[in-house]
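User: Is it possible to get a 3D structure for a protein together with its bound compound? The compound here is hypoxanthine. I've pasted both below.
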Amino acid sequence: MLEKQIRETVDYIKRKIECVPEAAIVLGSGLGGFADSLEDAVAIPYEEIPGFVTSTAPGHKGQMVFGKKKGNYVLCMQGRFHYYEGYTMAQITFPVRVIKALGTPKLILTNSCGGLDPKFEPGDLMMITDHINFMGANPLIGPNEDMFGCRFPDMTKVYNKELAQKARTCAKELSIDLKEGVYVGYSGPSFETPAEIRMFQMLGGSAVGMSTVPEVITASHCGLEVLALSCITNLAAGILDQPLSGEEVIEVAGKAGQKFAELLEKIVEII
Ligand code: HPA
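Assistant: Yes, that's possible. Here is the predicted structure of the complex:
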């Protein structure tokens, strides 16, 4: 069933693109601008892609864009699907399996998130070095899809060391102070309470957000090389004496978008 759907989706996409993308980049809330700068771009709205659901989250355009960046052919997802939108874990991670089935070896995931580390500031960029799945679900629950990976996949080397090192090098060249830390995945759509944030801090989290973890687990299961980058758009609930808002998240991500895009561009150039 899944295999048939994947084949249909991949056939549909392959008819529209030049060659197999060298990397896929999922652009999170407010970070979609990077895709607008691709050369010879071909955009496919999610509604047109068989098996895809539609993107309802604010700041998510909802299309796949294929094109060249610094000579490398890449695939950008301008917007993703979230668990809080009411989709199943299978639906939100379907694009990851499509990316694998297309033959693309590398997946760069980006997101906007709240900082748990009080030293972080809005607009900071953070590379995810590990995660805590606090979403209450796992995308691999259900019959194992043997064509993608094994029943009990190892999660000790999910974030690819070589890609991480390349990201560090690129950040250094651009004089970007790239933070590193543990991302806590939370279902949302409500933001966390101050008590939950204190708990996540005690658990060793550096940042919290409502995405990425399901995609990372699915990507790791099927052997994609993963790099994950976050934009800290706010300090998490209760750290400052001010309420959080979705609008603020999009606004700060938009402002950091230029820096984020420069870093992505450099990374794409060398991977
Ligand atoms: N919590 C969860 N998700 C988020 C946040 C936050 O503080 N900021 C941006 N996405």
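DSSP finds six helices and nine strands in the chain. The pocket of hypoxanthine is lined by residues 112-114, 186, 191-192, 208-210, 233-234, 236, 244, 249 (CB under 6 Å).
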